[in-house]
Amino acid sequence: PHPPCLLPPLLQIPPQDPPFPSSNGLCPISKPSLPPTWADMDECEYELHDCQPSQQCVNTPGGFHCQCPDGYRKIGTECVDVDECRYRYCQHRCVNSPGSFSCQCQSGFQLASNNRSCVDVNECEMGAPCEQRCFNTYGTFICRCNQGYELDPDGFTCNDIDECSYSSYLCQFQCVNEPGRFSCACPEGYQLLGTRLCQDINECETGTHQCSSESQNCVNFHGSYRCVEKNRCLEPYVQVSDNRCLCPASTPLCREQPSSIVHRYMSITADRSVPSDIFQIQATSIYPGAYNTFQIRSGNEQGDFYIRQMNNLSAMLVLARPLSGPREFVLDLEMVTMNTLMSYRSSSVLRLTVFVGAHSF
Predict the structure, then answer these.
(1) Around Cβ 38, how many Cβ atoms within 10 Å?
(2) Domains of the chain
């Protein structure tokens, strides 16, 4: 008797007639009484193929064939990886891998939905490290700073610009640096005029002085003010107005004194350029045949001022040297009136108080 044979299930056909004996020891083939229904054998499943390890076995009706997987090509009997990167499938950078490839984008870009193209990344919308302002550009971004700041060498941080250190001419008095800007400050007694200049505060006009309205007058000068007595007349002079003192001719002591003293006040800035005309003296009374001369009677011991007579009726007080402040000068400017035909001589004094401010503005 022959040993039993085993066939794959798909090949086991129920015998209808006694099988023909086999002389080679293989399973006998039944002789069908009807046309047989042959079932296909999957050579790939039962590894009854001769495909190389790098190949894929593909079953076909009645047979099989060997093919290379995607990403490979057949050279001889072997499958060799296809270098897809040679065909420039990627916009930026291609990375080949066994049987496949992948696309990568340069910094500042990301893969599009087709996994091949690269689109710009808006870093500003994704939290770019700019401290103040971010501007997206193609493939990257740039940081910018607000006015008053400058970009740090790191490209992200904004540092305050100390405008005051760049120039000493930004402010008339003092420059104050602030984050992102600067401001100007003025000394006491002054206020800002615009944003950079300083203007004297007239305390007498604004009512911010401490003078007594009954007995004192407020005199404003650069940077401050002074309270002066309304009655500044000393004997033998008598007051005829707030600023005028008269020496009566009937009083013996008045014979050798100026007939009148008029009080005036003025203010000049420090370090004023010289020579500089600062005050004009004008005769108020005109006498026929009289001749007037003008002089500084007192208060000019250091020669800081001089008189320039302009004509018979007026003269100019001139600043001869730059003055630093704060200082105060009291100058007696005398006008001497003479009439030689009538042997007449008289004088009057304008007592001018000159306040020199502490600053050049």
Answers:
(1) 12
(2) 83-120 (2.10.25.10), 123-160 (2.10.25.10), 163-200 (2.10.25), 238-356 (2.60.40.60)
